[in-house]
Amino acid sequence: QVQLVESGGGLVQAGGSLRLSCTASGRSFSEYVWGWFRQSPGKEREFVASLSRSGVNTYYGDSVKGRFTIAREYAKNTVYLQMNSLKSEDTAVYYCAAAEGIWHRQVVLSRTLDYDYWGRGTQVTVPS
Question: Which of 31, 49, 99, 122 has its CB surrounded by the most CB atoms within 10 Å?
Answer without folding.
Answer: 49
